[in-house]
Specification:
This protein has a seven-stranded parallel β-sheet, sandwiched between helices. By secondary structure, it is α/β, with parallel strands linked by helices. It starts with 8 loop residues before the first strand and ends in a 6-residue tail after the last strand. The chain has one domain: Rossmann fold (3-Layer(aba) Sandwich), CATH 3.40.50.720. α1 packs parallel to α2, α1 crosses α8 and α4 runs parallel beside α5. Keywords: NADP, Oxidoreductase.
Length: about 260
């Protein structure tokens, strides 16, 4: 069976759980060697790597606290060594900016510290990850940013998160223009409600689940694999003529 990403090297930030894990597993299934980062979830990262390798894929995990921009150059130094050892090259074909942290918290209870951390992980880190990746990213490569439906339909319960994800959409457009002459496509995927541990508390309420499913055209929560399928398309050769787009993958939430 042909694997569309065979021989490709990819980096998925925040790949130890949730959507990031789904993306890492799908890219590996499609033939890519996957580097994934984690911050505190070492066990989750090890489980993700084990699942990929158990299915015949290739993956490894590196710890990185992406709230600290100074950690990013050091991360790429490690990636250089790891990819060179595994693939014989330091070149990266696919960068997926997925890492995030919990966005709950409204205007009244927000603190400067919480604001700084949220924006650092969701908006600043992708910017500097791309900056560090540029000299390593192959011409014709792919950058996929994981955004959110909240970027376009801001939620009062998560104003900082909504704002940070809106920034990612803008960055996606700017990078697509800048990197177009290298045939590097830059797109964002904006999930709606996806069944992950980040919204586990919401799903404990049967009324909330019923309301969300009623507001979703396809009538269910998304799964990480649903988002991973869109990322895999953008990362493949079939996505070569798509750039500068924010693709909502929400099952038709609040159409």
């Amino acid at each position: 069976m042909s694997k569309p990403l065979n021989g490709k090297a990819s980096l998925v930030t925040g790949g130890s759980r949730g959507i990031g894990r789904g993306i890492a597993q799908r890219l590996a299934e499609d033939g890519a060697t996957v580097a994934l980062t984690y911050n505190t979830s070492r066990q989750g990262a090890d489980e993700t790597v084990a699942a990929i390798e158990g299915s015949g894929g290739r993956a490894f995990a590196l710890q990185a606290d992406l709230a600290d921009a100074r950690a990013i150059p050091a991360l790429f130094d490690l990636l250089d060594r790891e990819f060179d050892e595994r693939t014989g090259s330091k070149t990266i074909d696919i960068l997926v900016n997925n890492a995030g942290n919990s966005g709950w918290g409204g205007l009244a209870d927000a603190t400067p510290e919480a604001w700084d951390t949220m924006v650092a992980v969701h908006a600043r880190a992708p910017f500097f990850l791309v900056q560090s990746a540029l000299g390593r990213l192959r011409d014709g490569g792919r950058i996929v940013n994981v955004s959110s439906g909240a970027a376009a339909r801001a939620m009062a319960a998560v104003p900082i998160y909504s704002m940070a994800k809106a920034a990612i959409n803008n960055l996606t457009h700017a990078l697509a223009i800048e990197l177009g002459d290298r045939r590097i496509t830059v797109n964002a995927v904006a999930p709606g409600w996806v069944r992950t541990d980040m919204n586990a508390a919401v799903r404990e309420s049967a009324d909330m689940v019923k309301a969300i499913e009623a507001d979703t055209a396809l009538g269910r929560f998304g799964e990480p694999a649903d988002i991973a399928a869109v990322v895999a398309f953008l990362a493949s050769d079939d996505g070569r003529w798509v750039t500068g787009q924010v693709i909502e993958a929400s099952g038709g939430y609040k159409l």
